Predict the structure.
Amino acid sequence: MSDVERFEAFLLEHQDRVYATALRLVGRASDAEDIAQTAFLRAWERFDTLRTHPAAGAWLTTVTTNLALNHLSRHRSRWRLFSEIAAGGDRQRDFESTIAADAPEGDPLTQADDAARLERALRTLPPHQRVPIVLYHFDEQSYEQIATRLRVSVGKIKTDIHRGRLALRAALGSDHES
Amino acid sequence: MNPELELEREIHDALRRLPQPRAPRSLAPRVMHAIAAATRPQAGWRLWALHWQLLGLVVACSTAIALVIGGSLFTGWIGGLATTRALVTLWQTFLAPYTLPLLALTVVMCVASALLAAALKHVAWEGQEISPS
């Protein structure tokens, strides 16, 4: 079996996890695919050591996360520049009310519907809420680790995660409200 | 129970129950194609057999020498033409004095454009960089 064939097997084994990590962080399928491709190309450069490493999957996840965060940082700078030029203010939408408004009232939701709505709601969260939620609930990082990684305060992380959770709960429907 | 803890547990359970998104079918072919392109053997003079490398070197040097000799012969011949002498005079009188300043201005404008492009790129396109492991 050649190196390329071994790498293809490695790729097929890990592609779902890598893509899911990227998609949940950046929220867009096309960007997630680009990030996943970059992550695997970096894995190819280090395949000599990775192919037998027990933590290859974790390494891939870390690289994918870093690439996704870099991607979001670049876009945040770009859109901050143009939004400051154009509007000169905070134009954040109220995502909680938007998502809640989209939820059909009185509609019997199947488990698959719940999952689809939750996934969609997660993707439509603003990045400053979505990224900490993904890092906390999927990557199982602490508030302090997330704050360090994103270079913001722990208080901001807690606030953003809390607001994101409220938005996701609203997307799941009134059945879950306490 | 603490409402915040209850919310955290509810969302955590809901998120962990989500099915993992599947990678698109296009991902694997894209990656393998990129790897194939990167590992394709590069053609070039250094990969030729030794005798072909030497022959190529001789041909390249001969061509360069022929161009230099031919160019000087051609310049000498064309300098003898009356029309060319008139054009040369016009050039020396009206255009030659401004050649150097125009060249300097062009270089300065190119450098300024490159610096402006780099500054715009830094402000608009690049944010905080996190070093990948």
Observations:
- The first helix of chain A runs from residue 3 to 26.
